Amino acid sequence: MSDPERVTLYYSPQTRATGTRVLLEELDAPYDLHVLNMKASEQREPSYLAVNPLGKVPAIRYGDAFVTEQVAITIYLGDLFSQAGLTPALGDTLRGPYLRWIAYYGSSFEPALMDRFMQREPAPVTQSPYADYDTMLGALEVQLAKGPYLLGERMTAADILWGVAFSWTMMFGIVPKKDVFVRYSGRITSRPAFQRINAADAEMAAQHASAAST
């Protein structure tokens, strides 16, 4: 049986779940990994589809609570481990902007990125969830220019979500390597938590690739 006081993170290396694992490290939260080898399609097995019918990671379990969707997980964990100081409390003037930019990730950034990556024509601006790609990214550029973090001087759980996301989207050329994005992402990826998980991910991914080839 799992310890009800520990978070179980359903995980695969070098995926969106990496950001959640980095966040758990930053929160100093007790957690265990339930690793899925996506190269062996373990995320499509019935046992995991019962956790997340979409067969995606990350997902978490804490006690009897299951949470999917990276945005929801970020908010949930930040509030659950609020003693780490990475979440503006209710009543804090930063709480609204904090929720805004976390929601922006799922509602605007990801849809825009997928359209750009798949070379799909976006919906008309009046119907698109993100207006258009340049407008969506421009709003982020303006906000991050106020820096050093998304909400100014204070680092929050939102910065873990965004810092890791900028790292991989710039790596694949989906987001341009503008100075403001590079500097911002570097503040997160240079932190010990990201460095530890990035190294662990590389080792785990190599093991999965080896297992899939045998």
UniProtKB/TrEMBL annotation:
UniProt entry tagged with the keyword Transferase: yes
CDD domains hit by this protein: GST_C_8, GST_N_GTT1_like
One GO MF term attached to the UniProt entry: transferase activity
Keywords recorded for this protein, A-Z: Transferase
Annotated GST N-terminal domain residues: 4-85
PANTHER family on file: GLUTATHIONE S-TRANSFERASE FAMILY PROTEIN, GLUTATHIONE S-TRANSFERASE-RELATED
Protein name: Glutathione S-transferase
